[in-house]
Amino acid sequence: MNTDEIYKVGIYLRLSKDEAKDRESVSIANQREYIWDYIKENQLIYIDEYIDDGFSGGNFDRDGFNRMIGDIESKKINMVITKDLSRLGRDHIETGYYAERYFPERRIRYVALGDRYDSLDFNSHNILMKFAYNDMYIQDISQKIIEILNSKKKNGLFMGGIAPYGYKRDIANDKHHLIIDEEVKNIVIRIFEMFNNGIGIQTICNTFTNEKIPIPSIYQKQTRGNKSSTFGIWKAKTIENILTNPTYMGDLTQRREKKVSYKSKKRVRTNKSEWITAKGKCPAIVDKETFEIAQNIYNKNKNRSQKSHEYLFRGFLVCKECGHTISINEYKWKNKGKQVVRHICYCNYYKKYTRYNVCTPHKMDYDELEKEVLKDIQEMCKKYLLTSNFETLLKNNDKTVKLQYNLKMKKTRVENEIKVQNTCIDRALNDFYKEKITKEVYTRQYNLINDNIKRMIDDVKKIDKELLLLKSKATKDDSKYTKIIQEYLEWKNPTKKLLSALIERIEIDENLKVKIYYKIRSLF
Fold this sequence. Notes:
It is a single chain. With 524 residues, the chain is of the alpha/beta class. Helix content is 47%, strand content 16%. Helix 5 (92-105) packs antiparallel against helix 6 (128-154).
């Protein structure tokens, strides 16, 4: 060990918030006292101390740590002492970088007293396993914290730092409970009303920006992050986040974002399956019907360009043959000096894979299609609107029809499979008669296939029971349907909101025949 060099010591002290609660032995005062005994015993020159109180060991962006690195670069100190390796950090990659590369390259002597590590002593214990252990410790702590937070979220406690736009934390009574922010509640309601009435997301953004309505981050006085040149302008993603958040209908939804790793501050959006939703755990700003209509419209139009033409039936059109969406494209050309514009429908799947002959064009004029569909709806209204039948139809709509359709399709698939399995039994029996297989092989095949058939027959019986329950189900919310009927009576200009309440999809076959699938049970 080289003892001739004069060492100018910097003491580094760190304590995380979690450790402060549980471990008195690693307090800042305790670390300082422990290190000072070593300094006095070895007659080292003390220069300065660097403290990070309340900082995680997985985060190396710390004020005290950065100041120490600055003093190393300016050659103010040439020795660093910590109580143990975990005080330097718990991320084994970053900690290993400083201990095994950064310090040696700058001729910095590093001592971790509790782990008996001294960079000048080649007989020091191998620290690689210690780094890995510290990293595992912080990973374990991080996972336990996430589990605790998720448990609280499932119980309906708001665990975020900043409440969703339109809400605020009830600091006076319970900081984990949200209350409506009356100052901006109407902005949220307005977003849903505009969107449900066919106004595009970008148009909503432009309207709010022109009206100088503060964006959520400005209103909530958020200061984090870099401010771009467009800061203050309403963005489509902001509106989308509001429109798709169940919190606004009273179902508190959290974990819509998560950190990519316990080592990183970067956050990414989670899949809907990862959201944590506690139903009815916060006051609703919009009713459930308004929210669900918004989801219907959003899901049918989310993949289209914000700048594209607004088509009333975009998102409703489906190819009967392949099941893919029917797209609408605008074509412009000059004819005798006049501008001609046509809107043409095409099967998306055909258009994408034309050379593979996977489907047919389904080409038709959209404007003509729109007229015919609107005419069909109007005729349906004239025929049933003033009758009790039409009201009965409406009362049995919603998701019931879609569930019935899916169950019937499932039943058909299972029944077809039963036919296939019975054919397999016939083939096996025929092979046995022709002595292609032995009796034992036939018996095994028969028993296996027969067990499958029994299971599928049970499945059919279960589906029949579900269909019977759905058939007997009737919606009790009379006022909802009375409102829809009244809207139709006063209907002048159709809206996507109104259409989404009635239409599931519009199917076009290769012969250009159009079939409208209403959400109501059809009697016509």
